[in-house]
Amino acid sequence: MATRFGQFGAFMMARALLVVGILVLMLVVPVYLKKERENRESEVHRKELEMSRGPSTNTASAPAVTTATPRPIGHGLSLALLGDGRMPSDVAHLGCHGEPAPQDRPHRGGCNPLQGDTSCRTVLPVLCVRATEAPMPGGLDAARGVWAGGALGATQPVMGAVIESEAAGSARCEQELGAGWRMAGLQAGGSGAWALQGQRGPGLTGHTRYWVHAADQKGNCWDSGG
User: Fold this and answer.
1) 166 within 8 A of 186, measured Cβ to Cβ
2) Which distant-in-sequence residues (6+ apart) come within 8 Å of 215 by Cβ?
3) 81 and 39 share a domain?
């Protein structure tokens, strides 16, 4: 009998403790939730007050914000293969009046070395040259184009605006065609017409124009200025 009363007493004690624990939770949880709500409301009020005051007028410590002006999309010089039945098959001849003709800013129906003739948004191959000190073959007329002194080739087509310098064009030539290749260029004061002659190399096909560097004029995608 004593054992039964002892078990009953232990049960009642555990039950009482459980009830007390539940009552404590019922008191503590609402207080905690109320405190959290007050903290959130206080934070919202603080942010609203900051916004109502506007931005800080203390500009002495704020760094100056400068906006870079984007370079305008300009025009670049381009050449195209000239159809000439008298030219040896292993020689490439590219000039201002090759086909297709430039469409954007031509000069007298051909290339425009002074200002660039083709929008730099256009995607064209880069004309490349690799000097080999090869002499001009007999029968070629130097007045019809500068002899490149080596081979002429071309890269895969690229948007002209990507070519930000002659060095960038030459790097593309070397990357795609190999060591020794660089971007082909012409000078207004050079001998011959605005044309190039050279040994036919890789990548040259018809029905397209090629980006060329205007060495002493602002007719390139990186310096034509629009």
Assistant:
1) no
2) 185, 186, 187
3) no
Q: What is the pLDDT of residues 55-108, one digit of tens each?
A: 544 444 545 555 556 667 899 999 999 987 777 888 999 999 999 999 999 999
Burial pattern 64-82, b for ≥16 Cβ within 10 A else e, equals eeeeeeeeeebbbbbbbbb
Output the six-digit token pair for 164.
């930000």
CB burial of residue 160 (10 Å; 0-12, 13-18, 19+): buried
The pLDDT tens digits for 158-202 are 999 999 999 999 999 999 999 999 999 987 655 557 899 999 999
User: Collapsing DSSP states into helix, strand and coil, what is residue 31?
Assistant: helix
Domain extent for 185:
75-214
pTM (predicted TM-score): 0.67
Classify 166 as helix, strand or coil.
helix
Kindly tell me the burial class for residue 101, based on how many C-beta atoms sit within 10 Å of its own C-beta (0-12, 13-18, 19 or more).
middle
- Look at residue 58 and tell me if it is in a domain: no
